[in-house]
Every structure is written in structure tokens, then in C-alpha cells.
Amino acid sequence: MEQNNRKAWLYLLPAMAFLGAFLVYPLVDVLVYSFEEGFNFASQTCFGIGLYNYRYVLSDPYFLQALKNTLILVLITVPVSTGLALLISLGLSSIGKLRQLYQTIFFLPYVTNTLAVGLVFMILFKKTPYSDGLANLVLGLFGAAPVDFISGPYWAKMLVLSLYTIWIVMPFKILILTSALAGVNPTYYAAARVDGTGRLRIFTKITLPMISPTVFYLIITGFIGAFKAYSDAVALFGVDLNAAGMNTLVGYVYDMLYGNSGGYPSYASAAAMLLFAIVLTITCINLLVSRKHIHYV
Amino acid sequence: MKVTLQNLTKIFPGRGRKNPQPVRAVNSFTLEIPDGKLVGLLGPSGCGKSTMLNLLSGLLEPTEGRIFFGDDDVTGLPAEHRGVGLVFQNYALYPHLTVEQNITFPLENLRGKDRLTKAQMAEKARQAASLVQIQHLMERKPGELSGGQQQRVAIARALVKMPRILLLDEPLSNLDARLRLQTREEIRRIQKQTGITTVFVTHDQEEAMSICDLILVMKEGDLQQMGHPQQVYDDPANLFVAKFLGTPPINTFTGTVRSGGLYLGQQRVLEVGEVPEGDVEVAIRPESFVPEETGPLTCGLDRVEVMGRDVSALCRHGSFTGETFRIIIDADDRQKLTGSTVNFRLKPNKVFLFRRDTGERIRF
Questions:
Q1: Of A56, A141, A265, B241, whose CA is between 20 and 30 Å from B56?
Q2: Which of A188, A193, A196 sits opposite B94 (nearest CB)?
Q3: What residues of A are in contact with residue B79 (Cβ under 8 Å)?
Q4: B236: pLDDT strictly greater than 90
Q5: Confidence band, pLDDT 50/70/90 cuts, at residue B307
Q6: What is the per-residue pLDDT across B317-328, written as a single tens digit (0 to 9) for each?
Q7: pLDDT exceeding 90 applies to what percent of chain B?
Q8: What is the pLDDT of residue A189?
Q9: What is the DSSP string of A86-141?
Q10: Closest-CA distance of chain A to residue B295, Å
Q11: B154 to chain A: closest CA residue
Q12: CATH number of this structure's domain B3-244
């Protein structure tokens, strides 16, 4: 037994060494930084230890704006993208012909570069002196006044960012959900049909519980991914997100690290720890809530 | 409920370049299943039994022909309106629901005037559960049940709506040998108790013979024979049916009919009367052999196995189609099986002649 144990640790050593060096150590280090006031990378010194960094970050209007943006983004994109992906997957698994083709088309955004897609979204939504953009053109058909979605009102920018995020994250969810749906034994559906079960009831009482672990997985990873949103915002609104009022939490951390030619690693660490705490809390709540509704077979 | 099939046919179209031939899974069935009978649909794998069951349940639509439940034409009726209970081979119990929820599931689908209250549903579920004796398992999930218990839950779920017809797809194939014996008696009891016309599919002839009122023997989509199990066993319509029924299986020989006698090799073993002369397939049930010193059929004796109630022996004969064949004799005749050869008399009602080319029965 003892011998086996030593062997097991030996086998685990490479992974543990890597994880320790590149995951655990930085995490602890960030925690330490976040309590060190005015830490300087170059001199590796700080003024003192305390909660000052947190106090600063929490009263920084840019941080509060980023927090608000991120929360709105999470609350819109996670449910909408998961729901839509579920609908599309259901559609995909019920068609026979051209299924492969549609599956490929729906997966394409996943392999497309974020920034390239951002450019396309700009063309669709940006209002310039020369053109109102395709979106405004369509809206104009319904008699709406043109809106600048890229540098216009807040709701318009948030709408575009949400649309963009949903569009980017859906392919992966569709892929996962289609395979989950394909994994449901068809005799369950045959049994339900013989018993005269309606389509909606088949979905809510059989399909959904059967794929609930997958849906749950997508919701958890969706939440985490959305909280870490950054590149999407950059692709649409450029690097100066604070000026556009569209910064995200990760964007704020980045700005604090590299902004103003020197940066504020202490503030960045405090913001990063706050983000970490939020994600951890949400994930724990998710786990607790889901325990009742997830059926692992 | 009486079930009538008229010219019922199901053809699956050929698929792709590899299997371009369409498959006739059920070929022109015309028959009538009387009310309240337990019917066994019997045949080797791939003979169209399950297709037949799915046609009855409404999960598949026939290519041609009609299906009647009683006097109702249900041919175009979708599964949910046919009032059938179907027990699947893998039971198809919803794993996330308790036994009780599984059983009440079909009841919750009832709408309009048939709608039931929660209390009525619970009562019906309780009745169905007590019929199959699983009242004590109502709160469990299917994953926590044994195969036999799951089987009972599946039957209870199929029965709870009081279906017009109960269909069972290979209901015993997932059970171990002992449970299989027990469950088949159970199916018989439940069917008797409810009086619901029941069709069950099996490839195990023993299973079908033991509990059915009627058996239908199928082969490659064609109905071979239908009748009471004993009658089909005693009077097979063709070589396939003769070979398919009976354990140990029937022994087939190549023989010749000459001047009113059946010859195996050079020995005239049986008087067959007015039968056209020529080569025939001869099928002889194992229990047809009676050892007698003056018997006309001489066989080589390989080995004798005593099985308590009766005695089984492995014999050889030049015109047998295989290596050795098995016979069964009364234990009292045990001492007559000595030496390297034994003479047998054949019981004529257990010997069947078939045409070489078509396998059709030649009666004598």
C-alpha cells in the first residue's frame, strides 16, 4: 500500500509541478499583491499591507461601470445563448436531410477569429458619415431612426455586444447539445408516443431531464466565460473601453496592469480577486440550485 | 379485443448503394387473433417480428393492408390513439422518474373528459402495481431495481391505461434463466387476470410454446404457420417450422419414397402409403425413436446420457444430414441401448416428410 502510494505521487508529480508553478502559485501571489498597497514591479516594494486596494477599486467609477457591464452581459447572454442553442439543436436533431450541412454552418462561427467577426459586426452596426450600416438600413424599413450602435447610446452598444457574444458562444453549445440529444435512447420517445404524450411534454418531461447534465455544464461554463468577457468588447469598441463606457471586469484588470505606462498591479490584483470571488459564488449557487434538477443516470 | 390483419405488408426501402434491395419485413399477413388470447410471435432474429409489433402499435405505418382492433379500422391511426400498451425490450423506463411516476406517466397524458385527478391516478397506479406485485417499490428509481423488477414496472406502465391490446417485445430476453421461467408464468397470470389480448415477440420457441394460446411462426417476413403450440408442434406445415420448434431439435434425414415405403439408406423404415415416389427430406422428432430388436432402422450408438426422467442418446446414421443426432427414450428402455448399434422402430405421427425443393410438407 505504502509502495503504491509513493508510486502514485510520483506519477502525479509532473502535473502537480506544472499546476503548482503556473496556477496555484500565481493565484496565491495575486492574493498577496491585492493586499499590498502601491506595489511596484520594478523595485518589488510596497508601502504597506491593508484593504486600501479593495477600497480604491470598489469606489472607482470605471470599475463599477465594468461590473455593471459584465453583469448585464452575463444575465443576457447566458440564458439567451443556451436557450437558442437548445432550440437550434432540437431543430437539427429532428431534420433528416441536409443535417450535416446545417451542423457545419452552425459551427462555423466557432472557428472564426474573434477580431475578424468584430470587424463584420462593425460594418453591420456602425454608423458613419457615409453609411448608416446594414442594421440601420433594415431598421429604417420599419421606420426607425438610425442609431449608432458602436459609439451611440449605451443600450445600443450593450445590445450589439450581447448579440456578438451570443453569436460567438452558440456554436460550441449547439455542438454539445446536439450530441447530448443524439445520446438519448430513441425508445424513450417511442414509449412516450405510444402513451400519447404531447410534444411539449416529451420535451419537458423526457428530453430535458435526460440532457440536464449537459445543459448544466453549459450554463456553468457559460457563466464563467461571460464573466471573463474582454476580447469581444475590444473587437467592437477598440482598446479604450473606459472611454466607450463598455469596459468589462477583465478589461479593467488589463487596463490596471498595463494602462498608463507602468500600471497598478495592486489595483489589478484586487479587481482580479473580486472577479474570482464573484465567479466562485455564482458557480456555488449554480451547483446548489441545480442539485435538485439535474438527473445523472 | 379481436385483432384482424388484412394483407398487412411492410416494405423498407433499400438504402444507399450497399443495400439497394428493398426489404419485405412483413409480407402480406392475413389473419385473425381472437379476443383475450396470449399470442406468441415467434421466429429467428431478423424475421420481421418486431416490425410486426411496431405495425400493431402504430409506431410504423404499413406499406399495404389494414389492421382492425375489433371492428375499428386503426390502420391510419397514430400510436397514441390506438390504445395499445407496449413493453419494450429494454423496458424504456424513464430513469429520472420514480416507479410511481413512471406508471402514472401515461395517465397524465389524458386530456378532456378522460382527465384524472391526482388521487385517481395514484389509485390506478396502485392497482397496476399490485397486479404485478411491485407496490413496495413505488418510491424507487428504475436504476435501483433488478432486471425482473424493471420488467414488472414496464408491464404496469403498459397496463395502467387498460389498453385494448398489450404488446411485449422480447420481454424475457434481458433476464437470467431462472427469472425468465418465473416471469413467463407471471406474464401468463397477468394476461389471464386482465383478459387483455396480448401479443408477445420472442425468438425462444420454448418460451412461446409454454405460455401461449396461439403461436405465429415467421420467417423472413412470411407467416409460416399459426395455431395452438401443441398443434403446430405435432403438425408442422413445412420443414422450417418443424426445425424451429422443439428441444432438442428435430433430426433431418435425406430419404427416398419407393413403392409405399420410406427408405433411409437401404432400410425400409416406415410404411407411408400413397406418396409420390422420389427423394424427400425426412424430419424425425427425437422422441419418435423406440428401441426394438426387430426395429427396421439401424443406427450407430455414440453415447448415452441419463437425465433422470428420460434418457438421451447420440446416434449416427448414414443418411442423417449432420454428424450425430439426439434421440430421447423412456428411462425404462435404458438397458436396450447397448452395443455399438441399436435397432429402432419409429412412431409414425412424429415422422414428417417434406419436399426437397420447397420444404413443403408431404402428408401421408
A1: B241
A2: A188
A3: 193-194, 196
A4: yes
A5: confident
A6: 988 988 899 999
A7: 55
A8: 92
A9: HHHHHHHHH--TTHHHHHHHHHHHHHS-HHHHHHHHHHHH---SS---HHHHHHHH
A10: 57
A11: A191
A12: 3.40.50.300
Q: What is the pLDDT of residue A151?
A: 79
Model pTM score: 0.79
DSSP B155-223: HHHHHTT--SEEEEESTTTTS-HHHHHHHHHHHHHHHHHH--EEEEEES-HHHHHHH-SEEEEEETTEE
User: What band does A23 get if pLDDT is binned at 50, 70 and 90?
Assistant: very high
Q: Which domains does chain A have, with CATH numbers?
A: 61-122+151-290 (1.10.3720.10)
From chain A, pick out residues whose CB is under 8 angstroms from the CB of B162.
Answer: none
Q: Smallest CA–CA separation between A294 and chain B, in Å?
A: 9
Give the pLDDT of residue A262.
60
Q: Three cell numbers at A65?
A: 461601470
Q: What is the mean pLDDT of residues A14-41?
A: 89
Q: How confident is the model at residue A297 (pLDDT cuts 50, 70, 90)?
A: low
Would the CB atoms of A194 and B86 count as touching at under 8 Å?
A: yes
What ipTM, to 2 d.p.? 0.81
CB contact under 8 A, A194 and B58: yes
CA-wise closest residue to B3 among B53, B42, B49: B53
Contact list in A for residue B157 (CB cut-off 8 A) is: 195
Q: How far is CA B156 from CA A23, B79, B146, B219, B276, in A?
A: 55, 18, 15, 31, 55
Which segments of A183-293 does DSSP mark as H helices, in order?
A: 186-194, 199-202, 208-227, 231-237, 241-244, 249-258, 265-290
- Would you list the DSSP string of B318-356? TTBSSS-EEEEEEGGGGGG--SSEEEEEE-GGGEEEEET
Give the domain ranges of chain B: 3-244, 251-362
Using the Cβ of B161 and the Cβ atoms of chain A, whether some distance falls under 8 Å is answered with: yes
On average, the pLDDT of chain B sits at 90
Lowest mean pLDDT among A27-31, A110-114, A258-262, B36-40: A258-262
Which pLDDT score is estimated for B240?
Answer: 94
Query: B59 touching A, CB under 8 A?
Result: yes
> For A195, which of B95, B96, B109 is closest by C-beta distance?
B109
B79 touches chain A (CB under 8 A): yes
Inter-chain touch B79–A295, beta carbons under 8 Å? no
Please check whether residue B86 touches A, CB under 8 A: yes
Query: Which among B105, B108, B143 has CB closest to A297?
Result: B143
Q: In chain A, what residues touch B85 (CB-CB under 8 Å)? A: 194
Helix/strand/coil for B257: strand
- Give B179-215 pLDDT, tens digit per residue: 888 888 888 998 998 899 999 998 888 888 888 999 9
Contacts A198 to B, Cβ<8 Å: 109
Q: How far apart are CA B62 and CA A135, in angstroms?
A: 51
B86 and A198 within 8 Å at the Cβ level: the answer is no
State the pLDDT confidence band at B17, using cuts at 50, 70 and 90. Answer: confident
**CA of B87: how far to CAs of A7, B296, B338, in Å?**
51, 51, 51
**Is the alpha carbon torsion for B131, B132, B133, B139 positive or negative?**
negative
Give the whole-angstrom CA distance, residue A228 versus residue A73.
Answer: 10
Judge whether B254 and B282 are in contact, CB under 8 Å. yes
Chain B hits for A188, CB-CB cut-off 8 Å, are 92, 94
Contact A185 B85 (CB under 8 A): no
Residues of A in contact with B163 (CB under 8 A): none
Q: How many CB pairs under 8 A join A and B?
A: 59
